[in-house]
Amino acid sequence: MGSVTGMSIRGVLLDFSGTMFRLEINGAWQPDAAFDDPEPLDIERQEQILRVMTAPVEPTVGLPAELRADWALRDLDPEVHRRVNIAVLQASGLAHPGVAEAFYDRLIDVRSWQPYPDTRAALERLRAARVPIAVVSNIAWDIRRVFDRHGLTDLIDEFVLSYLEGVAKPDQKIFRTACERLGVRPEEALMIGDSAEADGAAAVIGASVAIVPPLPTTERPRALLDALAEHGFAAADTD
Predict the structure, then answer these.
(1) pTM of the entire structure?
(2) Half-sphere exposure of 214 (CA within 13 A, CB side)
(3) What is the mean pLDDT of the chain?
(4) Per-domain residue ranges for the chain?
(5) Are 187 and 196 in contact (CB under 8 A)?
(6) Domain spanning 6-20+116-230 has what CATH number?
(7) β-bridge partners, 191
(8) Pair 131, 189: CB distance under 8 Å
(9) Do residues 162 and 75 make contact, with C-beta atoms less than 8 angstroms apart?
(10) Which spans in 75-151 are helix H?
(11) How do residues 54-98 score in pLDDT, each as one tens digit?
(12) CB-based contacts of 193: which residues, under 8 Å, 6+ apart?
């Protein structure tokens, strides 16, 4: 999408899930009493469910018809988020009592979110360039705890979270809010995210956009640094 020089970019907006962090299976997901499910929760099954849980915009396959209206509102209300996602998990095969609820708890467990290898380096590159950063996320829980856990909070200037703002991407209002809080005009901002539909909507207000693939963290070592380099923030081969 749009590309300008680093001198023209005065503020950067960054998505959370699939951009800076990824929901991944790790020690926090090990089976325990809460996962006393008659069906084995193997890696393939968990990966399939994770893909369902992190779908950025489109309605989820298998969502009960009576909850489809709530799906669009899930990132604006924590209670709706929990109810809808537990229903999705149950429809995805986690029907044994308590298993969907336990799996949902893993979704909002800070230990379940892993930073991409270049997340810190990208944030530090922007800090060195004195470019303010806003995290702009469709989310219904406090992801600032994730940044705290990884020692990254001090590198972020603003957290613009849908459930606190009452508006979600692709609505242009959330991008405008982020720009206002950073003190930059939309045309001076760069939005980096993993969804062309959700994050790409920042282009409507005149912002530049870079889309990165939401691959596993082991398969995407430097997409953020490359996106910054493409927009004038140092050369991609200097790190």
Answers:
(1) 0.86
(2) 20
(3) 86
(4) 6-20+116-230, 27-111
(5) no
(6) 3.40.50.1000
(7) 13, 209
(8) no
(9) yes
(10) 78-91, 99-107, 119-128, 144-149
(11) 665 554 556 677 777 888 899 999 999 999 888 888 877 788 888
(12) 14, 15, 18, 19, 136, 199, 200, 202, 209, 210, 211, 212
